[in-house]
Amino acid sequence: MGSPGETIDLSIIVPVFNEQENVRPLFKKLDAVLQNLNRTYEVIFIDDGSRDETFRRLEELHARHAHLKIIKLRRNFGQTPAMAAGFDAARGEVIVTLDGDLQNDPADIPRLLERIEQGYEVVSGWRIHRRDAFITRILPSRMANWLIGRITGVRIHDYGCTLKAYRRSVIKNLHLYAEMHRFVPAMTTITGARVGELAVNHHPRIHGRSKYGISRIGKVILDLLTVKLLIRFSPNPGHWFGIFSLPFWIIGTFIGLWSVRMALRPHPEGFSIILPALGAVMLFTAFFLILLGLLGELVVKTGSYHIAQINRPVMKEN
Fold this sequence. Notes:
Layout (H helix, E strand, L loop, with lengths): L7 E9 L6 H13 L5 E7 L6 H11 L3 E5 L6 H11 L2 E6 L11 H9 L4 E6 L6 H19 L11 E4 H4 L12 H4 L7 E6 L16 H17 L3 H27 L10 H38 L7
Helix pairs in contact: 5-8, 9-10
């Protein structure tokens, strides 16, 4: 297996919640595929607070397979925190995620890796022939995919497909929370990652029941707005803070000039300190926003410099 900090070729991340009937056959399929890849690998199951026999069955598998890891969360936090825990623990140069319900096909993993080797940093699975209920699963998913692509500008067909492959360099720098896991392809474009997609198999669920439904739409929409701000705001925070400060500059300047005009009148009856104070607050707010923008630019440029230094090619001389 190697030491805990040693980098390996491939990490497989599988978040599970109450999937006691599925973990054994899924690991068997995964292991059969991975053994034929001629790569060093690990499989990481994240038990997201299961209340059935999922964890016990994973422990039984772990006792017989050294390359299987288990992360046990104290309670059910959701798919995004579970995947984030897996990303933190993963040692692979390439990280592949898939669901634990046997609907994603492990046989598609070699094809995802081929696309990664072609130069993509992110490869997203596309369930062309999806085996789910149309009204409750497929139709909302299609609407969400269209909306996400429209707002983020990253057009892929199936944001909701968990079967994805990532290069370590792009996924390790992301901070995931809420329902952000579905937006990872869009978020990686902040750093210029090359995103592709691949048609994959999809099987009907045989055991257990789905943990996702229409009730998550509200959370997804809120997270989508957050992702939109991150994509547009992150590269040039000073530019956007400058735009936000303009109304305060304009209103504050107008109020200030009007107050001076009123104060210079021969008989400034009715002149009140309230109006000049309001103008001063507006100008101070605008100045504060500009300072925040400059601070944001400093943070972004400093982070970009460190990332460039980390990724800088090493030149060897004879």
